[in-house]
Write a structure and sequence with these properties.
About 30% of the residues lie in helices and about 25% in strands. It is an alpha+beta fold. The protein is globular, with a radius of gyration of 23 Å.
Length: about 250
Amino acid sequence: MILLMAVTALTAACGGVEPDTSAAAADDGPAKPVASWGAEGGFVTATMNVLRPPRVVLYGDGLVIADASKQLTLPDAETGEVVARMREYLGGQPPTAAPKPGAPSVTDVPDTVLAVRGEDGKMLEVRVPALEQLADFYPKQLLDAKKLMDDLGTRAAAEGADYVAGRVRLVADEAPSAEGKPSPWPEGVPEPSGAVDPVWQKDVEGETASAVTKAVPAGQEYGRSLFRTGSGTVFVLSWRYLLPGEE
């Protein structure tokens, strides 16, 4: 027994026994975003503002999700390359970029939001107002970062599979004068409660999420339809799948 213990200790010291990393991996939880591109603000409806997902998100395990509707998985090497390039493009940029002097005034368009996880583990985020409209007035690195993420989204749309999830964001927009015949409120779907100003939203999962996706037709824009509550109020219901870890 003493001899066996000595051999085991010697083997471990020489690297013959692999360390147990299973517990550490389990503690890490789901893969985290390592790069993203999205849009925020602008002159959009309240429903779109609530439902609008990031345009493209890259996760640490290589998963790419575009518009919360398409997905594909990159090899580890390509994932690392994308992160390295995004760090190069966004490093040293201010939190909110400003166009060069002489840029025209542009209003009511969304800000482009680019982000990458730095070597310190924190997300570095750069907000760029009217990037597409004022492209000539911004550093080339910001345009390169957007194009890199845009290309991933294009690939996901062309080559990827449909993205589905067990969690959805439900939005109800009161529509008393909407055209069309409202359907009875779908069974298993929660009715709006409290103030609806300007929209009511609720994140649901499991059987409730399934009830939403089955009852509300999926359309080009996230899915929308007219329903009447038990009290007689008419709402347009819309939804989209939530991303991993999205709150």
